[in-house]
Design brief:
Length: 113
């Protein structure tokens, strides 16, 4: 038979072990949730990288349209997103005819926010 002090010591050790097991379960659950969050963020970043060229082409097309039609609302919309649009005049050769009235290209620059 166990003595009173041995019984209390073993009960205390068992209670401590139970507390450690519960803490382990809670930490494991939180860790799994965080891993799922990190995985979701990584997937979002991966998809964003794949769409970057498409977004760049959309912005370029909008900028070209704004410059070609002198469309102030499109320029304002791009400026609201931090994108500055400037027209690049076509290079003029020494013996060439005057440059056409529409610009040859546009500069599209993403602004710092």
């Amino acid at each position: 038979m166990l003595k009173q002090t041995e019984f209390r010591l073993l009960t205390l050790i068992a209670a401590f072990t139970l507390l450690v097991a519960v803490a382990n379960i809670v930490l494991f659950s939180q860790n799994r949730d965080r891993q799922q969050e990190v995985t979701a963020r990584g997937q979002y970043i991966q998809q964003s990288v794949q769409l970057e060229s498409l977004y760049r082409e959309i912005v370029k097309a909008l900028a070209d349209l704004a410059v070609r039609n002198n469309d102030r609302p499109i320029r304002d919309m791009l400026a609201a997103q931090g994108i500055s649009v400037t027209a690049n005049p076509a290079p003029v050769a020494a013996s060439a005819a005057p440059a056409p009235s529409t610009p040859a290209a546009t500069d599209v620059k993403k602004g710092e926010k």
